[in-house]
């Protein structure tokens, strides 16, 4: 795997550096993610401060979320129903804000939800996000994580991709957390 470097640049930021041995498409997607996320200013969305290319490196400077992903946390410990509902309500608020800006995330899943040390949720990874208009232009394109995809997304019906697809994915995350909690209680 080509080198990826991340390090704390300041107390509140993270720099992700990527060498150019990655594909040009991957780099375009990464920089596109940075631009989309930089336009979204919400406390529940990981803020991107800067992005670009320098010599053979690409970089993204983003907010440092001191915590872990919801996927990691749920694999280590049982989340109570109230806590899971609170975290997902915070993500729903962040998604609502993105939707008001015309952005559909298209990849809502536990590993793209970061939970900081005080329990606040932050949505990240806008790499395959699209404006509603652009989604409708990309017929037949399938991108995202299959188990969290809405039916229209899984079928490649991008013209039908609306904010409802993100709400569907968030519902899958909620179901997964609830079932996981039930399975741990047995």
Give a structural overview.
The strands form 3 sheets. This protein has a 4-stranded antiparallel β-sheet with strand order 1-2-4-3, covered by helices on one side. A 3-stranded antiparallel β-sheet has the order 5-7-8. A two-stranded antiparallel sheet has the order 6-9. It is globular, with a radius of gyration of 17 Å. With about 190 residues, it is α+β, with helices and mostly antiparallel strands. A hairpin with a 2-residue loop joins strand 3 (about 50-55) and strand 4 (about 55-65). The protein is built from 6 helices and 9 strands. The protein has helices at about 25-40, 70-75, 80-100, 130-135, 150-155, 165-185; strands at about 5-10, 15-20, 50-55, 55-65, 65-70, 105, 115, 120-125, 130. The protein folds into 2 domains: about 5-65, Phosphorylase Kinase, domain 1 (2-Layer Sandwich); about 65-185, Transferase(Phosphotransferase), domain 1 (Orthogonal Bundle).
């Amino acid at each position: 795997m080509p080198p990826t470097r991340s390090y704390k640049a300041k107390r509140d930021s993270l720099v992700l550096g990527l060498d150019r041995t990655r594909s040009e498409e991957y780099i375009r997607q990464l920089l596109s993610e940075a631009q989309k996320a930089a336009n979204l200013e919400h406390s529940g969305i990981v803020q991107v401060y800067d992005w670009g290319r320098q010599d053979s490196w690409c970089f993204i400077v983003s907010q440092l979320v001191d915590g872990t992903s919801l996927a990691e946390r749920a694999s280590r410990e049982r989340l109570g129903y109230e806590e899971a509902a609170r975290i997902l309500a915070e993500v729903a608020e962040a998604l609502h804000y993105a939707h008001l800006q015309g952005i559909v995330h298209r990849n809502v899943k536990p590993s793209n939800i970061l939970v900081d040390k005080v329990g606040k949720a932050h949505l990240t990874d806008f790499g395959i996000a699209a404006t509603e208009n652009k989604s409708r232009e990309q017929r037949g394109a399938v991108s995202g994580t299959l188990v969290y995809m809405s039916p229209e997304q899984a079928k490649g019906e991008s013209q039908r991709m609306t904010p409802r697809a993100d709400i569907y994915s968030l519902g899958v995350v909620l179901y997964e957390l609830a079932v996981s909690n039930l399975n741990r209680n047995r």
